[in-house]
């Protein structure tokens, strides 16, 4: 797995998407860009979503919570949206005549139509006891829209392959890509699972924390989510189950 972002970073990077033409559908010919940022509480649970978009046809930045919902629930719209990094968004913005893409602090000023998420207390799906040698166990689930091809699943298996250390190190034990990571004294183990047709995949993360400090949880969740975005999935929400 790629290096985890330093937990001292004040804010994670925004999520960037290319909006493709319905007639073309190729990332090389986008018709606009969309930018989002999830809002999470102190337990790393999603509580809302900011968004902004730009197309040369509009000529200005707009914000639409319903558009962000459609990216995740409308197959036609989600098929036109491709997750990318900031570099690809900058290139598309420049190519479409927008010039230099503003800094993230400026982009956040275009967030106007905020989408709040309903939040419930953690639903416990199993024993809450921490494993031996750990202070606390937490279980998170990140839901994703869209689907994965066989080659994308193979890419994830390769990225998340870890040295042998008991059954946690065997991704095949879950049937889909899985992995584990130690950050200081904390242990993180995750596996990817297919769910229903609309929310196509979920990532289940078990965090075994060595102390009452949870500084590593947010960066690990962010990094894992970013890896799945790179394979084409659109994050929907992050829930905590324990």
How is the topology of this model organized?
Blueprint: E1 15-20, E2 30-40, E3 46-54, E4 61-62, H1 65-73, H2 75-78, E5 81-84, H3 86-95, H4 104-108, E6 115-116, E7 136-145, H5 150-159, E8 178-183, E9 186-194, E10 201-209, H6 217-230, E11 234-240
Question: What does this 3D model show about the protein?
Answer:
The chain has helices at residues 65-73, 75-78, 86-95, 104-108, 150-159, 217-230; strands at residues 15-20, 30-40, 46-54, 61-62, 81-84, 115-116, 136-145, 178-183, 186-194, 201-209, 234-240. The protein is α+β, with helices and mostly antiparallel strands and 242 residues long. It has 2 domains: 15-116, no CATH class; 136-240, Alpha-Beta Plaits (2-Layer Sandwich), CATH 3.30.70. The strands form 2 sheets. Strands 1, 2, 3, 4, 5 and 6 form a 6-stranded antiparallel beta sheet that branches. β8 and β9 (186-194) form a beta hairpin.
